[in-house]
Design goal:
This protein is of the alpha+beta class. The chain is built from seven helices and eight strands.
Length: 290
């Protein structure tokens, strides 16, 4: 009985050995295909980087917009990598029809799961077609949350802004395409507006003269354009003075900060009080009836 079991075990081991020996050529061939596919992939990555770099330089010499260059390079990189993955699948023995069917099914599934991503791609195309801004422009997307800065990159799904404090923020292209965008760099000059509220007992003419003097003394203000100083509003707290003048677009913030500082300094020196929100309460004594 024991001899019979030993013979069966020996026969099983022999069968497994034959199976392994029979599969060694196939396994070796599969390993070779995987190795070749990996080599093709890494070589393809290097070639892709070289091609995209050459394409970028060519478009830059041709004067193509930087945003278009960034978008096209990002899209081509994604497309070429997809082709490399497809080539690897076919190289290891997967049939093209099976890969195509798998990609089709995966595409539908991913498309439903990533509707926002597809909207971002569509938004990027819209931004490049209609060009509400280009790379290097200063835009305001959400002033309430401080989202304003210089456009650094426009890629296939996202746009990167460099904020005033040199931080970078990435915004989905779909959000930008559906937002109200203020482009401060659309022209070389801007109209600067500064408002300040003074009390009713302050010298109005002196305050206006100080305002006008600050505009005339500032080297960033364009003298050839009209400088206006006027009363913009009268409210319960005081007189709202406003100035308006032309300034170079790239000096806008610097000029505004200088004017704000000059207003505080000169108003204090000349006894002009800046008004604050206030509420006057009058108490009227009621005569007693007897």
């Amino acid at each position: 009985m024991e001899e019979q079991q030993i013979q069966e075990i020996t026969q099983n081991v022999y069968n497994i050995k034959e199976i392994i020996e029979g599969q060694i050529p196939s396994l070796a061939l599969f390993a070779l295909r995987v190795l070749i596919s990996l080599i093709i992939f890494f070589v393809g990555m290097r070639v892709t980087g070289w091609v995209l770099g050459h394409l970028r330089k060519t478009m830059e010499r041709a004067g193509v917009d930087r945003g278009v260059i960034q978008f096209l390079c990002s899209f081509l990189k994604f497309f070429i990598y997809a082709l490399l993955v497809f080539n690897i699948c076919t190289s290891v023995g997967v049939k093209e029809t099976s890969v195509a069917a798998l990609l089709g099914t995966a595409g539908v599934t991913v498309g439903l799961a990533l509707q926002g991503g597809l909207a971002n791609i569509a938004g990027g195309v819209i931004l490049l077609l209609f060009k509400p801004f280009t790379v290097g422009d200063f835009i305001v997307q959400d002033p309430a949350n401080g989202i304003e800065g210089t456009v650094d990159k426009i890629e296939i799904c996202y746009t990167t802004l460099r904020l005033l404090d040199n931080r970078k923020i990435t915004i989905p292209n779909g959000t930008l395409a559906n937002s109200t965008i203020i482009n401060a760099s659309s022209t070389n000059h801007r109209k600067i507006e500064v408002r300040v509220r003074i009390t009713y007992d302050s010298d109005l003419e002196k305050a206006k003269a100080i305002f006008l003097g600050l505009l005339q003394e500032n080297p960033c203000i364009k003298e050839e354009e009209e400088m206006l100083v006027f009363v913009d509003d009268l409210d319960a707290s005081g007189i709202m003075l406003m100035c308006r003048a032309g300034v170079a677009a790239d000096r806008y913030l610097e000029t505004k900060w200088q004017l704000n500082e000059g207003i505080i300094r000169e108003f204090r020196k000349n006894g002009i009080r800046i008004a604050h929100d206030q509420l006057d309460v009058c108490l009227k004594e009621q005569e007693s009836q007897g």
